[in-house]
Amino acid sequence: MSISTPEAEELAAFIVANLPVVAVPGVPEIRLHKAAPESGLGRRFGAGPAPYWAYHWAGGLALARFVLDRPEWVRGRRVLDLGAGGGLVGIAAALAGASEVRAAEIDPAGRAALRLNAALNGVAIEAPEGDPLDVPPPEVDLVLVGDLFYDAALAARVTDWLDLCLARGIEVLVGDPRRAPLPVDRLELLNEAPVQETAGAVQTGAVFAFRRS
Questions:
Q1: DSSP strand pairing (27-33 vs 21-24)
Q2: Which residues contact 14 (CB under 8 A, 6 or more apart)?
Q3: Coiled-coil intervals in this record (predicted)?
Q4: 171, 141 in Cβ contact below 8 A?
Q5: Is residue 91 a contact partner of residue 102, using CB atoms and an 8 Å limit?
Q6: Which helix (H) or strand (E) holds 159?
Q7: Along the 213 residues of the chain, how does pLDDT read in single tens digits?
C-alpha cells in the first residue's frame, strides 16, 4: 500500500525528534538515527510491525564493515540492499563506490528512516515501496542481505528469491551471526569479526557468498 506524503512526513518528523543520530559501532564512518530508551517506539509503533530498522543487528554490521573494507565488491556496480532496515548496508555500499544503490524495505517507517540516514551520510539511495520477494529481481549486479534469516518461513522465501538472482547472474552476499534458519549448505564464508548489536551484546558477525546448490 502506498503511503501519502503527510504520513511519510509524520514518520520522518517522529524519527528526527525521537531517535538520536549516533555513529555505528564498528562502522564509525556511518551515522544513523537509532533507538534510545526514551525514543517511545512502543507507544508509536506498538500496533504495527516491529521497528527492526531502529536497531543495529549483527549481520548488517558485519556486512557494512566488509563492504567498506573491501570496496572492490561494490565499486562501480549496481547494488540492492535487501531487507534494508535503516539503510546501514546500502549506505556503506554507496560510500564504497557503488554506481547505484537500491534499498528494499517493506516497513514505511523503515523507508522513512532510510531516506533520512542516506541524507545524513550524503548518499543517494532509491527506496521503492512493496515486497521485493513478490516480484523478479531488479536489474542489479549485486544483492546484499543482512539479517533476513531469522525466521524459517522467511528464510525459505529469501533463499528461493536469491536463487532467481543467481540464475540472472547477480552475485549475492549475506551477513548473519549464524542464526538457525541460515542455509549454511549454500554459503561460502568470506569473513567474520566481532560486532556489537544495539543491546550491547558482542557476538561474531559473518559475511558469506551465496552459492548455487
A1: antiparallel
A2: 44
A3: none
A4: yes
A5: no
A6: helix 152-167
A7: 444 567 888 999 999 999 999 999 999 999 999 988 878 887 788 766 779 999 999 999 999 999 999 999 999 999 999 999 999 999 999 999 999 999 999 999 999 999 999 999 999 999 999 999 999 999 999 999 999 999 999 999 999 999 999 999 999 999 999 999 999 999 999 999 999 987 777 999 999 999 998
User: Cβ(67)–Cβ(144) under 8 Å?
Assistant: yes
Residue 93's alpha-carbon distances to 62, 80, 176, in angstroms, are 13, 9, 17
Angle between helices 5-18 and 108-120 (to 10 degrees): 60
Ramachandran angles phi, psi of 67, nearest 5°: -65, -40
At the topology level of CATH, where does 5-210 sit? Rossmann fold (3.40.50)
CB 51 within 8 A of CB 15: no
pTM over 0.70: yes
Pairing state between β 78-82 and 100-104: parallel
How far is it, in rounded angstroms, from Cα 100 to Cα 17? Answer: 30
DSSP state of 4: P
